[in-house]
Amino acid sequence: MTRFEELADAWGGDIRRWPEAVREEAYDFAAANADAAEILASAAVLDGLLSSADEIQAGDLLQRRILQSAPLPVFETDWRRPAIAAAAALVLGVAGGFAGGLFVPAETGDVYESEYADAFDGLMEDWSAWEWSDA
């Protein structure tokens, strides 16, 4: 009975407008129960009231209020939040780079020159002499 009442409230007093999946069962239930006819009659009264109501045109103010209260779509969210996050990451990265330079010892002229000479010593030699030397 409860399910029948729910369907009548949702779909109205005419079983022909109900979903096909429940129509046959609703006809059988209505034929077997006298209370079902009362439920359908009550729903039919509401259907009649709803169908006789004039269509109301909403004014501009009401339309604007409804649209302002609606949630924004995902693509129209506040752009400042990701921009602030990107700027903060940039500032932290630059600050971290400069702070990391404080922990590296400063090179003196002699040490730097000797390391450079050690690293690139012998590059002016003929490469063909040692390129195939292990073959």
Supply the key terms.
elongated; 135 residues; mainly alpha
Descriptive account of the structure:
The protein is mostly helical and 135 residues long. It has a domain at 2-51. The protein has seven helices and no strands. The longest helix has 23 residues, at 80-102.
The SSE string, one letter per element, is HHHHHHH
Please tally the helical runs, counting DSSP H or I stretches of 4 or more residues: 7
Class by alpha and beta content: mainly alpha
Give the distance, in angstroms, between the N- and C-terminal Cα atoms.
95 Å
Which whole number gives the mean pLDDT? 80
Largest sheet: none
The residue fraction in helices comes out at 55-70%
- Amount of beta strand: under 5%
Spans where pLDDT lies below 50 across 5 or more residues: none
- Principal-axes geometry comes out as elongated
Overall number of strands: 0
Keywords: Membrane, Transmembrane, Transmembrane helix
Transmembrane segments: 83-104
Helix and strand arrangement:
Elements: H1 2-11, H2 20-32, H3 34-52, H4 60-69, H5 80-102, H6 109-119, H7 127-131
Short description:
The chain has helices spanning 2-11, 20-32, 34-52, 60-69, 80-102, 109-119, 127-131. It has 135 residues and is mainly α. It starts with a helix and ends with a helix.
